């Protein structure tokens, strides 16, 4: 699922993101996930974002290297 950051109202609002994070955290904890599980999930999410951003930048780097 891709997040349309430019099109979703409030998607970049810090307060909205903080509420979302707190809600997800509470849901995970109430579902039996431990703190270490939440930390592992956060790491996996960061890895996914890093991979996506790197993939997007790769063609730009390749173009620069060819010039």
Characteristic key phrases:
2 helices, single chain, mainly alpha, 67 residues
Write structural notes for this entry.
With 67 residues, the protein is an all-alpha fold. The chain has a domain at 33-67. It is built from 2 helices and no strands. It has helices spanning 14-30, 35-66. The longest helix is centred in the C-terminal third of the chain and has 32 residues, at 35-66. It is flat, with a radius of gyration of 16 Å. The mean pLDDT is 83.
| Residues in β-strands, percent | under 5%
Count, helices: 2
Give the proportion of residues in helices: over 70%
Gap from first CA to last CA: 35 Å
Overall number of strands: 0
Largest sheet: none
Overall, the morphology is flat
**Can you give the mean pLDDT?**
83
SS-based class:
mainly alpha
Radius of gyration: 16 Å
One letter per element, helices H and strands E, the order comes to: HH
- Oligomer kind: single chain
Give start-end ranges of low-pLDDT stretches: none
Topology:
Elements: H1 14-30, H2 35-66
Summarize the structure.
With 67 residues, this protein is mainly α. The protein has helices spanning 14-30, 35-66. The relative contact order is 0.06.
């Amino acid at each position: 699922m891709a997040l349309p950051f430019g099109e979703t109202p409030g998607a970049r609002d810090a307060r909205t993101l903080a509420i979302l994070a707190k809600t997800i955290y509470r849901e995970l904890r109430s579902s039996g996930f431990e703190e270490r599980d939440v930390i592992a999930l956060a790491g996996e999410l960061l890895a996914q974002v890093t991979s996506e951003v790197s993939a997007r930048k790769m063609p730009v780097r390749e173009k620069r290297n060819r010039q």
